[in-house]
Amino acid sequence: MAQAIAFYFIAACILGFAVLVVTTRDTVHSVLFLVLDFLFVAALYVLLGAQFLAAIQVLVYAGGIVVLYLFVVMLVNLKRPPEAHEDPHRRTKLGFGLAAAVLLELGAIAVYGSVNPAAPMPATPAIPVSGNTEQVGWLLYTSYLIPFEIASMLLLVAMIGAIVLAKREL
Amino acid sequence: MIDQVLIPLLKIVIVLNATLVAVTYMVLLERKVIAWAQSRLGPMRVGPYGVLQPIADAIKLMIKEDITPVRADKWVFTAAPIISMVPALIVYAVIPFGPTVSLFGRKVSLYITDINVGLLYIVSVASVGVYGIILAGYSSNSKYPLLASLRASAQLISYEVAVTLTLVSVILMAGSLSMVEIVNAQYNQHVWFVFAQPFAFVLVLIGGLAETNRAPFDLPEAEQELTGGFHTEYSGMRFALFFLAEYANMIVVSSVVTTLFLGGWLPPFPNVGALHLLYYVPSWTWFLIKSFLFLYLFIWIRATLPRYRYDQLMRLGWKVLIPLAILNLVVTGIVKVMLM
Amino acid sequence: METQTVHHGAMFDTNELVINMGPQHPSTHGVLRVVLRLDGEKVVDCDVVIGYLHRGIEKLSENRNWTQIVLLTDRMDYVAAATSNVGYCETVEKLLQLEVPRRARYVRTILCELQRIASHCLWVGTHAMDIGAMTVFLYAFRERELILDLFEEFCGARLTYNSMRIGGLPLDVPPGWAKKVLEFCTIMEAKVGEYEELLTHNRIWLERTKGIGIISGPEATGLGLCGPALRGSGVARDVRKDEPYAAYDEVQFDVVIGTNGDTYDRYLVRMEEFRQSLRIIRQATEGIPEGPIVGKVPRLIKPAAGETYHAIESPKGELGYFIVSDGKSTNPYRFRVRPPSFCNLQGLRRLVRGHLVADVVALIGSIDIVLGEVDR
Amino acid sequence: MITPVHYMLLSAALFIIGVVGVMVRKNIIIIFMSIELILNAVNINLVAFSAQLQNGIGQVFAIFVIAVAAAEAAVGLGIILAFYRNKETINIDEMNLMRS
């Protein structure tokens, strides 16, 4: 029961802040709502027993990536609102249409789900005896070692790319 | 019911209040210690030897007019001090002030909670604290604070990388992310990690100074360059919150360094039988003494050293601290594997 | 003047940020206003705006009689008021072709050098404070206080002394004063070492000052820099040696020069000047002759028509007075000061280009200006 | 009771909000943030399944997603900055150098 309340509260916050991220005029406010959104996603991970991932979510997303966004927003101090220019080829209506269609589908699934409920989540989410961090670490360094290394290469390439792009004199 | 709700609640209340009192008295301590270093007396007027000065300061700051600049971003301007204060306080949830002791026939642990990602929790919560500074600078809609917050965001992110990388080698030694387990590991391995990981200790200390914006890394609030930095436009209680957050962060860094490197609540030489009588001193006293040493060190450094320049600071972070941290990590890993 | 172009990449360009440093800023040493054009944290250009402390001392002087002007010169370089007094009095003496007794010249030398130490104390304190070392500030002020005590004993004032008269001194030194000056020298020698211990070999201090604001000797001369700012660039120009006044031709001392002309060298020059000043004070105090303290000054000071320029070495550099007398009235016809701070401030624009914001405060500190003297 | 379907619905809704953001907004920074929302939606799904299946594989993939998001943000923001220096705009509709 407590878990259900927590889930609904967190889910409502996630969706609410996500809507605010997309709709807010002021970019800085938008970034702030994004941080809040990520913090609630981290809370959701805790609810799912993924504490390590929750910590990583806060550390990397909220404390790293979004700071980068904020940094760029501050550097790009805008003289005119970015939304002024309108592209005639833009298919805004299509976006809303698509969203409406998927929303309809979601509603259908939700209704169907409440009629034929699926198997509930395991009561106390998976916290193996050895601990969540060990479990993830073990998987990362055994079965998924190569993807892990590739990811690190990706980050290296991204770092170099970002430096090259942002550097003034090459 | 009592164990589940009442005792944790009581612990939270005690820790929060103790922290806030400690933070206000840190201000006095800093003023006093710096004054002594500079052959002055420091505050002497309010109460004997100025001991009531923090209360006078608090009253002054509370009744001062709280100005919001006309062209500031009002919501963000108001939220920024709170954003910087909250992470500084919630970090205390995982800091172990002592082991589990029996109190009035009841087992009570001298920490609010012990989660299995404790250290990671501290690092991640601390990384959110940077928003307070960035947003304060941005929302003031003023040039000096903006420069300061650009400086702050770059500085804090860079040093966070260095500190986190260094902490990994400590985690490698302890084999756990839980703060309590790290202290226990120091007991079981018969060594404080400051002796096992001297480089890591120095790196974390330097990184901690930079993370808390303390001299010689106090660029975001360099009064001589940026007229006060990110809090130039703040006054009254909102300014006080920034001020308190900085000191709360100092206490956090001291506590974390104590826990990770100086054996937390353990007395000196915990495994030497002859010194067993040291266990009669309450464990949290040791913790407080060790933390105090670091706080004193922070103040001492502030009284002594000039300030780094922005580019030098970044160079130190990226070209010295991070490579050293990685090197330390690699060496620790190799030694650990060889010992196994 | 050489214009140093800041390189912009052709493709990526950010807009410049104009910030206004001063007139109310913690490290502009008074009411200096510097308008900085920044590219990120780098200073592209700067504009020095002065005049916030202008009181028209030069024009005022043309409406005061010769004795009253001494009091006005106090208000120029108010951290070294006695030096300004001496400079003015010597100029008028030169105009009057008046002989000053030896005892008075010795006392003038001692006072000038005490002022140099006091001024350098204030400089080292504020300069270190600008760079973030706050303790040196209070240490330096502690010693400056001792000098102010000596001055108080001599003339009764602690900041604006009015301590000189045309032709000599207003009063003789109090009994026991010389002994106290020597005692002060002993204390000060140890304390200079204390400042240097905190700064000279400090890594951060070295990083903050070495290679910052390099200016070559010829360029510094070209910009009209003077005093320690010029000597830091390796030009051995010191009015005390080149055109000795007071009793400087009777004492031994060295002109300190730097090599690289950066902020660190200017710092080292001033630190060594502390020691040289102490050396001069020692010699002058020990060799102070007996005799009258005022020369044969006419009752009504009314120099013959003519003009004269006379310069002395103030703590900041060459402090010159150009005075024209019409020979008819009891006040100068034209009175003009060549203030060292003003001339040194001209170099600021050249020095800060291409450096970072944090260096601007270090550079303002390193040229050691007093706005009272800049604006007059 | 909370079932995986709940998590999937949440994830899908978040995904859609992200997609609408990408389609509708013209501020490129907001578009990037919408993409972050989409990635988070994916992560929620992965972690929910990881919890359901009682193994950590989903979480491992979520970590990879975070790594990719970090890389994307670094390069993407670098491009935005470079573009802004050139054109003084961050309106995506004005970024049509390659079109005609």
Mean pLDDT of chain B: 83
Q: What's the total number of strands of chain A? A: 0
**Shape estimate of chain A:** globular
Query: How confident is the prediction overall: mean pLDDT of chain A?
Result: 78
Gross morphology of chain B: globular
| Greatest contact between two chains | A-D, 91 and 74 residues
Total domain units of chain B: 1
Strand content of chain B: under 5%
> What oligomerization state is this entry in?
heterotetramer
Order of helices and strands of chain A: HHHHHH
Molecular structure report:
The complex is a heterotetramer of chains A (170), B (340), C (376) and D (100). In chain A, helix 1 (2-23) runs antiparallel to helix 2 (27-47). Chain A has 6 helices and no strands. Among the domains of chain A are: 1-78, NADH-ubiquinone/plastoquinone oxidoreductase chain 6, subunit NuoJ (Four Helix Bundle (Hemerythrin (Met), subunit A)); 131-170. Helices cover 73% and strands 0% of the residues of chain A. Helices cover 67% and strands 2% of the residues of chain B. Chain B has a two-stranded antiparallel sheet with strand order 1-2. Chain B is globular. Chain B has helices spanning 2-37, 53-63, 74-90, 118-139, 143-174, 179-188, 193-196, 198-211, 223-226, 236-261, 283-304, 310-339, and strands spanning 100-103, 106-109. Chain B is mostly helical. With 376 residues, chain C is mainly α. Chain C has one domain (57-375): Cytochrome-c3 Hydrogenase, chain B, CATH 1.10.645. Chain C has helices at 57-61, 69-74, 81-96, 102-131, 134-155, 177-199, 203-209, 217-222, 228-231, 239-242, 263-286, 340-352, 357-367, 371-375; strands spanning 17-21, 33-39, 42-49, 306-314, 317-325, 334-338. In chain C, the strands form 2 sheets. Chain C has a 3-stranded antiparallel beta sheet with strand order 1-2-3. In chain C, a hairpin with a 2-residue loop joins strand 4 and strand 5. In chain C, helix 4 (102-131) packs antiparallel against helix 5, helix 4 (102-131) packs antiparallel against helix 11 (263-286) and helix 5 (134-155) packs antiparallel against helix 6 (177-199). Chain D contains 3 helices and no strands. Chain D is an all-alpha fold and 100 residues long. In chain D, helix 1 (4-24) packs antiparallel against helix 2. Chain D has helices spanning 4-24, 28-53, 57-87. The interface between A and D is large, with 91 and 74 residues.
